[in-house]
Amino acid sequence: MKKYYLPGSEPERVIWLNNFADKLPGYAMMFNITAVEIADVDQARTMYAFIINQSNARKTDMKNVNEYKNLLSYAPIGTPIGPVPMPEIAMAPAAVPSGIF
Questions:
Q1: Under a CB-based contact definition with an 8 Å cutoff, are residues 90 and 56 in contact?
Q2: Which residue ranges of the chain lie beneath pLDDT 70?
Q3: Which of 7, 20, 76, 101 has its CA 20 to 30 A from that of 33?
Q4: CA 12 from chain center: how many Å?
């Protein structure tokens, strides 16, 4: 059975990519890795962590909206339901090319 070096789950890939980006500068001289390549990896790690966090946040947002919708639709008359849940929008990091792995 072939063992891949990349973890299968997205949260584990965030950890892997952070570790890779942190250690890469230490190998720059040995493998002739440029400062631009190191910066590209660092930007990729930032974007990947951001997009995984945003994906998870949207799942939570959808859960909250559905719970609110169910209260609005089926709770007894007069039940306080609170404010409409609104998503938090985070500032996106700089865009990076696709295919980071």
A1: no
A2: 1-2
A3: 7
A4: 11
